[in-house]
Amino acid sequence: MTGRHQNRLARIAELVPPRARVLDLGCGNGALLALLRDQRQCTGYGIEIDDTHVLECVQRGVNVIQRNLEDGLSIFDDGSFDVVLQLDSLQNLRNTEAMLRETARVGRIGIVSFPNFAHWPHRLSVLRGRMPVSKSLPYQWYDTPNIRVTTFKDFDALARQNGLRVLESFGLDPQGDEVRRWPNLRASTAIFKFEKKA
């Protein structure tokens, strides 16, 4: 695991209250859930579709459900979790808005992260007439798993439009360091913590 990735996981873990019940949507290899279990005494589940990642979760002792996120979260009751994580999976979904509402339905707090398309190197690449390729967007336009790209301002507007209150937002630079000043321009990754408005 790279230092950048470790910094990112550690920073996201700090947003999760100790002993929280957590659902991680698109949990990958389960590294974050294992970190939350071991360092913050959290419990919960990951949802992952990829066979290899599901096996890695099991090997880490992480509870995982193999499921396509496009099928929604109907298997969970309202308020089943303290925190629902959706890290670098939002941009891969066809019905982003519905999944955002589902995240708020099953969890008291939601935390999302996504590649920030407004990061200055991405803007420069587009000005040069090319789609950006970077650490946060590592694919060519023709082989990317990303269905859509977004920015801080776009996600903030979507959250408000869906009755969510943004509790905190910040960015991470390509080295995994926190960016609070001008994150829409300076951050390669966006992170939002939100809750449903009362």
UniProtKB/TrEMBL annotation:
Annotated coiled-coil positions are none
InterPro entries (alphabetical): Methionine_synth_MetW, SAM-dependent_MTases_sf
Domain of life of the source: Bacteria
Any Pfam family hit: MetW
Q: What is this protein called?
A: Methionine biosynthesis protein MetW
Native organism is: Aquabacterium soli
